[in-house]
User: What shape does this take?
Amino acid sequence: MAKTRALLTETEREQIAGEHGDSRKYQATSRVRGRIQEELESDVEVLKEHHPELLEELREVVCEESDERD
Assistant: This one.
């Protein structure tokens, strides 16, 4: 089965990690920021209304990752 992306493509992961230079890092950061501000907010609203259990799973992953960094 092919691997799918969540928020970042494999190339964007590399670019944000600085593997393709500062210009590519900036471009990838901008694309991802747009997804977070535009698409992710819409996805959360759909999950909130139609599948709150799945939204809770998303929160657990995101919040757990955030807690591990602190």
